[in-house]
Each structure stands twice: as structure tokens, then as C-alpha cells.
Amino acid sequence: MSQEPEDVKPKINLKVVYDGEEVQIKVKPNTKFAKIFAAAEQRFGKESGTFKFVYEGKRIGKEDTPGDLDIEDGDQIDCFLEQLGGWQ
Amino acid sequence: MEPQKDPLSVFNHVDLRIRGSQVKSSDFAVFSKRCKLKVPGTAMNALAAVLQHVSEEQGNSGSAIFSSWLGPLICHDVPQNTFYGTINGHIENACNGSMAMLSAKSIWIFPMCKGNPSHWVLGWLELATRRYHIFNSVPELPILWAEPALLEIGDTVFAHLGEMKVDWESWKLISHSPAPLDCQMNGWDCGIFVIHVMLVLVNGWDISEVKNSETERIRQAARKLVEENLVLFKPYATPLPQEKVQSTAAAVSLPVTASDSTSDNAPTLNIASSRTDDVTPNPESFDLSIKPGNEIHPSIVSGSSLKRKRPSSSTIFSDSDSNSQSDDDGTPKKLAKKAWTKRRGKGTKVYEREQSLLANKWVDEVEAHRVKCRGCHKWIKLDNETLEKEKEGGWRDG
């Protein structure tokens, strides 16, 4: 009988805040932020690329992970608007 | 054979900034070949900064390119803070802090992004001939917002130079668009058109060269311009807590301590305070220097976007946290919070509280449940965290 591998990296909850509105996103510490950005933008009903995400005053890159930035369970990510012009 | 490393990937590893704006390599993805992404403001402003710097290096210092955030800040669409910057900071960035230099420029260039859906257009003021221009890559798209927005930005910049009233009636508007077959044919390239016009203006080329067929070349030229001028993007020294600084002083090569806010990219503002919160270097390089008689909004100073990480175990930040509560001169937001945090005395009447709020220099208007900030012109709720008190009948009756 195969044994289930133990989950050594528990998921953490991120609080993503934009304009006073907050969404909770549960992620693994090694999840790339590109995926988290997409989820947050979808939850806020915004087009991809609408936001820039900031943790403790520093912008988060798409390739970063919560683990890279020492983000802990319950920490807050702030969203700031990006200008995105394209006409359509 | 090992694949060639993308030179712009450096932005993923180091916190590099230009004119105070934090840049990531993904911002420049729009300059990749045959890219169908829309140009983000960060890429537009970074490129504008590089373009102006390079042209000045080449002895062509006739134009100043301003941040595209200037318009939204002036219209209060976004707040002045460490992330969007400040109006003063953006104006001074466009002239390296020298107002005399700004007066000497012959063209002021303003990339603008607005509308629904958002659309990049370029406005510029030709000071000598008193003409203002607006370029729109999609002629059939009405951009009624552009002219008032441009003039409002112009008013603000002129006011910064001491000219409080501009007689726009004596100025002439010139609208530009590519020829019907040369205009923007897709839903994402307006930013590339705007960049092309900026290149034309800075280099003194002919604006008729701005065509849809040129977008791919401009995309590559923009990328090359950034790649060749990576040195203009300055690293930001991450502040360290005092304890860490002391313990790792020998290992840190950059001479930055928690109390040193005068690094290359740190703001020039330095307010004397014993609060450790205040000595956290501001992550932006916007010049927040206080002019005589011109007070700065506390939220700009404190950096509203900055969140201190919760102490993981011990009480490293507990002292500073308790100190922060003893700050007497706060924004209305702090004031509101403090008003409830500090339990209202038995004898305090509603009108007394109203008077105390009105006495605060940052309070513009007071209503029963909210106050308007004189600095950022936003309404701030007084009773977010006091629903229970509401039930007891508090300010509601005021």
C-alpha cells in the first residue's frame, strides 16, 4: 500500500487588499506570484496587468514566491493601480 | 549551447528604480517582438525618463517628459503617496529638481492614459509658440477628456513655476493623428504610438513618420534604449532593522542604516523624530522636501503603502509600535482611530468632539461619521471599528 507523502509545506493565507476591499488567497509558499496575481485580479474583476502588487513597500515580481519574500500566514499584499492603455 | 540571458532579467533580482518607480522585467515584456500586450505606465515612465536623460546627454535638452501619473494625481484619481508619487516630486523629476531648467525647456511632454477603456495619448505644450498639441493614434476614438486634462496639468506645472493663471485662450490647440491607413489598427499599440511621438519630439523628427507600420521597429528601439541604459536604473538599498544593522554592519557593503535616509534613492525629507517608524527609509526617491510655508501631508511622509511586517517571535518592533501610538500630530485617519482607541471621557460631548476634529489642521470638513482630509481630499470614516459604540448611540446623534 502506497503511503501519502506528508505535506511539509502547509498553505498560507494571503490578504490581498485593494481600495479597502480585501480578498483572501490560500497559496503554497512556493507558488509563483504570477498565479497569485491572476487569481487576485480575477477576484477583483480586473483585467490582467491592472495592478502592481506590493509587500512591505516593495513591488513583487511575477517570478517571486511567498517563500522567497519570507511572507507569512496572514500577511498583507497591497494592490496599486497600473496605467494600462490599449483602447479596446 | 546555453540560451542567451535576457539583460532585462536583472530587474527580477535587484530592486532597481528610476525616478522613484520600482521596475520589474515584466514591465518591459511589452517591448518584445510582436507582443500584443498593452503598454503599462511603469514601462512608459521608465522609458520617458531614459529618453530624456539620453537626449540631455547628447546635448538636446529642449524637452521635459513628465510622469503619466501627474494627471491622475492632480485630478485626485489616485492619492499622493510613496507608490504613485507626489505632484511636486513628478514635476521636479522631469527637470532634475531645477525649476530654472524647467523654465528653459521649450517643450513639456505629458503622456496621458485615461478613458474607458483606457487609452494612451500624448499631450505637449510648445511654450515659445503658445501651442498645445494632442496626439491620438485612433482618430475615430473620441478623447474629450484629453484637452481639459492637459490644460489642468499645464496649470499645475505653471503654478509650480509661479505663474498662477495661464491664459489658455491665447494658446492654440493642434490635434495630431496618423493618416487613416497609418493609424492604430489593434487594441494594444497606442502606448507604442505615444512612445514613437516622444522619440519624434525629443529628436526633432517629423511626426508624419509615426505610423502603424513602424510599431514593431519602435518596440525594438524602446527595448534597446532600456537595455543600453540599465545604468540609469538605481538600486534601492533595503532598509534593515537597527538590530540587524548593528549585527551585520561588517557584512553590508552599502552604507545604509535604518536611520540613514540619504541614500541615492531615498527621499530628501528628514523629519526630526524619536520614532523608529519615521526613520524607516522611504522606498521612493520622489523629492518630498518641504518648501517654506508649504506643509506636506503626513500620509506622504509616513508612506501609507508601507506595512510593517508582524514581529515573528520576539518584541523587536514593540517599542516602535508603542511609540507610534504616542504621535500627537496625525492624519485624520490616525486621529479618527485614536479618538476611538482612547475611550471618550464621560463628560465629552458630541459638539466638543466635533470642535476637536475641526481644530485639527488636516481636517477640512467634519460630518457625523466622517471627516474630509485637507491634504488628500478624501473622506475618512470615523467609526469603522466602533460599530459596538454606534449601538450605544455615540457620534450618530451629532
Structure explained in plain terms:
- With 88 residues, chain A is mainly beta.
- Chain A is 12% helix and 33% strand.
- Chain A contains one helix and six strands; from the N terminus they run ββαββββ.
- Chain A has one helix at 33-43, and strands at residues 12-18, 21-27, 51-55, 58-59, 76-81, 84-85.
- In chain A, strands 2-1-5-3-4 form a five-stranded mixed sheet, with helices on one face.
- In chain A, β3 and β4 form a beta hairpin.
- The model of chain A has no long low-confidence stretch (mean pLDDT 88).
- With 398 residues, chain B is an alpha+beta fold.
- In chain B, the strands form three sheets. Chain B has a five-stranded mixed sheet, sandwiched between helices.
- In chain B, α2 packs parallel to α7 (190-203) and α7 (190-203) packs across α8.
- The A-B interface holds A 49, 52, 54-59, 61-64, 72, 74-76, 78, 80-88 and B 11-12, 15, 22, 24-26, 37-42, 44, 68-69, 72, 78, 82-84, 113, 117-120, 137-138, 141, 184, 186-191, 194, 238, 283, 303, 305-310, 312.
- Chain A: This is Ubiquitin-like protein SMT3.
| Oligomerization | heterodimer
According to DSSP, the number of beta strands of chain B is 12
Average the pLDDT over all residues of chain A and give the rounded result: 88
Predict the CATH topology of the largest domain in chain B: Adenoviral Proteinase, Chain
If strands are numbered along the chain, what order do they take across the biggest sheet of chain A?
2-1-5-3-4
N-C termini distance of chain B: 75 Å
Distance between the termini of chain A: 56 Å
The SS-based structural class of chain A is: mainly beta
Beta-strand proportion of chain B: 5-15%
Name the beta content range of chain A. 25-35%
Low-confidence stretches of chain A: none
Shape of chain B: globular
Largest sheet of chain B: 5 strands, mixed
The largest interface is:
A-B, 26 and 47 residues
User: Roughly what percent helix of chain B?
Assistant: 25-40%
Number of domains of chain B: 2
